[in-house]
């Protein structure tokens, strides 16, 4: 081994841009392996997501949080979903699923506000001094030996790797695209923020997120979906509040930078929701009752985007910065974990003194990107299709939505909540005893095996149709 490739006196340093769910989760994963990291956040405190923006944490994601040691705290602050029901806008029930029965041997479905989730992840960090707020990124540069991040306040941070977890308006993605030749270099290097103006970012649907006080007829622990003509509801009912999303067709497809910014005043939102007030969110409850009990709400454009380039040299983007879908059906968890595993393997090469002279070639970024891209294309396509099935966007999507909602909801939930050996986990941390027990019991459950097999075959068929579509129309 050549002595020039040996740098035992240098510990790998990772700079994370964005104090987001992706950024904080990655920080926990790195901290468990004692990897040096720094988080740079543009806001002066934890960023505030959309008002009322909640999400459902599926069992495979819970397994990872258990590995990181934060799962029990998240469970204590979350509501558990016991059943999932799908309705039509006239109140007819398509299917009701006993989620507890499906998940009796696995982690539960958890319902949590995004801001609450962020606070738990941040507060449970041992080294909060590694998080710097008020750091608006102005420029990214890299050489063969290091990456450099310049902030608006004049501060400069250097490291071996920069990970962009900075959302849809990503600074890191702009620089990655420029490095890969997808964007022209700006004459002013400090205007790299313009890099997010790329083709492919669209918005076809608008969304109104809200939180409402309890409504008679809507029981805690239940999740409701409503399929409508040109719109859909997602309603998650907690013990203290009800979290909901109304999504509806915006009238046309908006392309960046012409994606609208909506007014948040009550009169404007009243006008937007008025066509949907009589639609049902359950058999006996209309949306009007939910909206009249609203505590807060927010009107946003629902973006859809899949970037073709995720990495360049010492820069990489993860999460919403490279793939954004508004139906949170598939998550970026597996992508994030695979990347954490990739970083740890790089650290092992540092420690074993097996680092080549050209460090960026040792990060494995190209191999990692290619290993995840095809899978993410399919996840993106599934979510794109599901969004239009729920909104009955044309006869084909309506027929597919009715078919899935009436006959295959149980199989789909069972499949996507699978924490079998095929799902991702952090290689360098022990898996919990709960998970190991679940795997053993899973093998003896005939219903779950049948659900898993039937939906997997359906997804394989869908994969084949997507591949044929891409071949014919790409």
Could you explain the architecture of this structure?
The protein is of the alpha+beta class. It folds into two domains: 306 residues, 3-Layer(bba) Sandwich (FAD/NAD(P)-binding domain); 103 residues. It is 36% helix and 24% strand. It is built from 13 helices and 20 strands. The strands form four sheets. It has an eight-stranded mixed beta sheet with strand order 6-5-14-15-16-13-17-20. A six-stranded mixed beta sheet has the order 8-2-1-12-19-18, with helices on both faces. It has a three-stranded antiparallel beta sheet with strand order 3-7-4. A hairpin with a 4-residue loop joins strand 9 and strand 10. The longest helix is centred in the C-terminal third of the chain and has 28 residues. The termini are far apart. Belongs to the paxM FAD-dependent monooxygenase family. It comes from Aspergillus pseudonomiae. InterPro entries: FAD-bd, FAD/NAD-bd_sf, FAD_mOase_fung.
């Amino acid at each position: 081994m050549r002595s020039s490739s040996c740098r035992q006196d240098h510990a790998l340093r990772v700079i994370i841009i964005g104090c987001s769910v992706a950024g904080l989760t990655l920080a926990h994963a790195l901290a468990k392996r004692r990897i040096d990291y720094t988080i740079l956040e543009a806001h002066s405190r934890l960023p505030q997501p959309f008002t009322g923006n909640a999400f459902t944490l599926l069992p495979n994601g819970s397994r990872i949080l258990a590995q990181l040691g934060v799962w029990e705290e998240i469970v204590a602050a979350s509501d558990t979903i016991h059943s999932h029901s799908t309705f039509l806008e006239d109140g007819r029930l398509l299917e009701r699923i006993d989620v507890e029965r499906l998940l009796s041997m696995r982690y539960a479905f958890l319902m949590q506000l995004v801001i609450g989730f962020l606070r738990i992840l941040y507060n449970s960090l041992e080294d909060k001094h590694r998080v710097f707020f008020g750091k608006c990124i102005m420029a990214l540069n890299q050489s063969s030996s290091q990456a450099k991040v310049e902030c608006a306040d004049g501060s400069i941070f250097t490291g071996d790797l920069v990970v962009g977890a900075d959302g849809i308006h990503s600074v890191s993605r702009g620089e990655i695209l420029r490095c890969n030749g997808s964007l022209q270099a700006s004459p002013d290097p400090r205007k790299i923020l313009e890099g997010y103006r790329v083709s492919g970012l669209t918005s076809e649907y608008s969304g109104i997120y809200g939180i409402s006080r309890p409504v008679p007829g809507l029981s805690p622990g239940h999740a409701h979906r409503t399929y409508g003509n040109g719109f859909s509801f997602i309603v998650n009912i907690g013990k203290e509040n009800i979290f909901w999303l109304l999504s509806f067709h915006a009238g046309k497809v908006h392309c960046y930078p012409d994606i609208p910014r909506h007014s948040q005043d009550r009169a404007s939102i009243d006008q937007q929701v008025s066509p949907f007030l009589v639609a049902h969110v359950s058999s006996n409850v209309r949306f009007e009752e939910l909206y009249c009990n609203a505590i807060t709400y927010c009107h946003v454009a629902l973006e859809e985007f899949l970037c073709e380039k995720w990495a360049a040299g010492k820069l990489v983007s993860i999460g919403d910065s490279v793939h954004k879908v508004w139906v949170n059906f598939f998550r970026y968890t597996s992508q994030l974990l695979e990347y954490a595993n990739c970083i740890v393997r790089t650290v092992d090469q540092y420690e074993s003194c097996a680092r080549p002279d050209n460090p960026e070639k040792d990060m494995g970024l190209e191999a990692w990107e290619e290993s995840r891209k095809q899978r993410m294309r399919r996840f993106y396509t599934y979510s794109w299709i599901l969004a239009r099935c729920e909104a009955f966007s044309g006869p084909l999507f309506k027929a597919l939505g009715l078919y899935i909602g009436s006959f295959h909801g149980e199989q789909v939930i069972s499949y996507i909540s699978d924490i079998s050996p095929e799902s991702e986990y952090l290689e360098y941390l022990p898996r919990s005893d709960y998970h190991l027990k679940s795997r053993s019991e899973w093998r003896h459950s005939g219903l779950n095996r049948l659900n898993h097999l039937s939906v997997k075959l359906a997804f394989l068929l869908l994969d084949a149709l997507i591949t044929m579509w891409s071949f014919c129309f790409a």
